[in-house]
Design brief:
Layout lengths: L12 H24 L4 H9 L18 H14 L1 H19 L5 H14 L3 E4 L17 E5 L2 E11 L7 E8 L6 E7 L5 E4 L13 E10 L6 E3 L7 H4 L1 H29 L13 H29 L5 H26 L9 H10 L8 H12 L2
Parallel strand pairs: 1-4, 2-4
Antiparallel strand pairs: 2-3, 3-7, 4-5, 5-8, 6-7
Helix pairs in contact: 1-3, 3-4, 3-7, 4-7, 7-8, 7-9, 7-10, 8-9, 9-10, 9-11
GO molecular function: flavin adenine dinucleotide binding; oxidoreductase activity, acting on the CH-CH group of donors
Protein name: Acyl-CoA dehydrogenase
Keywords: Flavoprotein, Oxidoreductase
Length: about 375
Amino acid sequence: MNVLTPRLHRPSDAIEAALDRLVPIFAERAPAYDRSGKIALDNLLDLKEAGLLALALPHDKGGTGIGVTEISKIVGRVATGDPTTALILAMQYLQTGAIARASGWSEEVRDEVFASVVRDGALVNALRVEPELGTPARGGLPATTVRREGGRFLISGRKIFSTGSTALRWGVVWSRTDEETPRVGQVLVPLDLPGVRIEESWRHMGMRATASHTIVFEDVEIPERYLVSLKAPGASVDEAVALASWHAIVIGALYDGVARTARDWLVGYLKERTPANLGAPLASLPRFHALLGEIDALLLTNRALIEHGLAREAAGERGDADAGLIKYTVTENAIAAVGKAVAAIGNPALSQDNPLERHYRDVLCGRIHTPQGDSALGGAGRLALT
């Protein structure tokens, strides 16, 4: 199956049952991990034991070959419990799915990675963003460099915003060679090799427990077989770019999940909160009826947009511009929905004693994921005017 031809399936009953059991547990743990900024390793272990980390692998490699529809639904559900775990899981699915379908990877290397995922629950993520370059989606060549010294291959550089950093086993590192005409592409790096270190640089206000720290490579020696996809710039489609529409829809589904959790908390709060001067729950006031209607309208729009994007992908219709607009609109709607809840109830919404404060910080992070708003809008506008 081509990476851009997904199946339009829902998760199986067994997966649904596992999520029904795990998501409430993740929600209970989320506040403590948010405060500590540490990755919820027990959540990841639970996902491994439930067989959920390897789902994007092909059937003959120990997975079930799930496509973007199932990925979006699973990630959206996990995000209602802990969006930081959901983001690490999303990257696991997108990257292992990309490896399964990528050209340039030898079966030996592919099998090595997949065996570690099935056996150990090993985590994989692409490491692409750099301090000087920013996101590669905006163009440019990486500063991270692979050079040859005799029969040795050494990689040096640094990657920022490395989601799941301290829990990752494998990094798919966007790199260039030091040749006169550099080749560019993916290099597989086991992150336990000498010369790999992590700088704890992730100090963001939201999604704290993704531990998206900086990973530094200092003359890390890698086997030649791990130079999986180095080619002249523009010579072939970068698999990470080819997954852009999948990534956009999945990220939208994740932050929609955050907004739905915030909405449900607000409903409970309005039903329980009974001010002395009112003598009845806040849920009895017409202005809160209208507020919930506004929030539900935003979330209904999100659901329709995500389903539209999934249907196009299932039909094999490449729509990167549409996918970018879906991600932009869904994340903005999610932010607006949580923002309305915060504005409506005032100080309690911003207290760390209530989860709405955390949901608001987390949902704002939807804007920083590729494609960012200006890119999504500009790309769609250029296409319309072509």
